[in-house]
């Protein structure tokens, strides 16, 4: 079984590649043959190229929000190679496997796969941030939608996922031609598509995309590493907004502020329910 893995790492996001590659090799469906397609502007070989299963494909940094909005169009650069796969999956750059993910992950009886967004863990439909702009092809009506899927992990059987890629690449272009950008970019378009094909989607729980340090969500198998962590330089450094990496002390102060705000929100939410 051949599995194609799509991975975008333009600019300094290539920093995450080693963690992702090593963890995927160790934990992700080890009975399969995995082929990695790394879309990056780095000029130097990346870890794993010597295996013959890692292909580095040149991709310039497009800037925000196009680095994420145009990802479906970017994937088409590898279409011929992807046609040879049995399954194709896209993973965000800062994801890391921490537990074994076996063949039960695969949409064997379905054709597509989506993962519930961890930001909406235990939340109701009314809180989901679907695009509601009728001018966008990603628009969701008030009575539509059962799950809110994260944009950072999705996939399916090759033929069906390639159809998703083609369709969403075209929809994004049409939106842009009409001077429209979906609320959450590629994620908004993905949610529209998966809802339209809901009978054919294997829905995975939030444990396949748990933010680093989030202890609310059980059975974490894949974590989303903290972009603002000092070990990665911090979010501003990663996005090229600063040439100075965040220090450990700065990260600790910022992390304390965030946790304090979250605690206050939880307390307020608790008393509102009383």
Automatic annotation (TrEMBL):
Pfam families: Glyco_transf_6 (PF03414)
Cited SUPFAM superfamilies: Nucleotide-diphospho-sugar transferases
Gene Ontology terms: cellular component: membrane
Molecular function in Gene Ontology: hexosyltransferase activity
GO biological process: carbohydrate metabolic process
Cofactor(s) needed for function: Mn(2+)
Keyword Glycosyltransferase: yes
Keyword annotations from UniProtKB, A to Z: Glycosyltransferase, Transferase
Domain of life: Bacteria
Protein family membership: Belongs to the glycosyltransferase 6 family.
Protein's recorded name: Glycosyl transferase family 6
């Amino acid at each position: 079984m051949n599995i194609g893995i799509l991975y975008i790492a333009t600019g300094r996001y290539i920093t995450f590649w080693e963690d992702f590659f090593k963890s995927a090799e160790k934990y992700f469906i080890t009975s399969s043959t995995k082929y990695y397609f790394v879309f990056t502007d780095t000029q130097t070989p990346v870890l794993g190229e010597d295996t013959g299963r890692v292909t580095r494909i040149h991709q310039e940094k497009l800037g925000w929000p196009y680095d994420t909005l145009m990802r479906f169009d970017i994937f088409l650069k590898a279409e011929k190679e992807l046609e040879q796969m049995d399954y194709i999956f896209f993973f965000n750059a800062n994801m890391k496997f921490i537990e074994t993910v076996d063949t039960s992950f695969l949409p064997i009886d379905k054709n597509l796969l989506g993962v519930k967004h961890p930001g909406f863990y235990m939340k109701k439909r009314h809180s989901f941030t679907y695009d509601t702009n009728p001018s966008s092809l990603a628009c969701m009506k008030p009575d539509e939608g059962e799950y809110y899927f994260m944009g950072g992990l999705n996939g399916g059987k090759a033929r069906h996922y390639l159809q998703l890629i083609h369709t969403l690449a075209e929809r994004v272009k049409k939106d842009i031609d009409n001077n429209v950008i979906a609320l959450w970019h590629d994620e908004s378009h993905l949610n529209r598509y998966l809802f339209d094909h809901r009978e054919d989607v294997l829905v995975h729980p939030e444990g396949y995309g748990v933010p680093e340090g989030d202890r609310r969500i059980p059975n974490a198998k894949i974590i989303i590493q903290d972009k603002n962590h000092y070990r990665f330089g911090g979010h501003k450094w990663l996005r090229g907004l600063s040439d100075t990496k965040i220090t450990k002390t700065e990260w600790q102060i910022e992390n304390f502020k965030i946790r304090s705000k979250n605690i206050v929100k939880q307390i307020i939410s608790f008393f509102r329910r009383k």
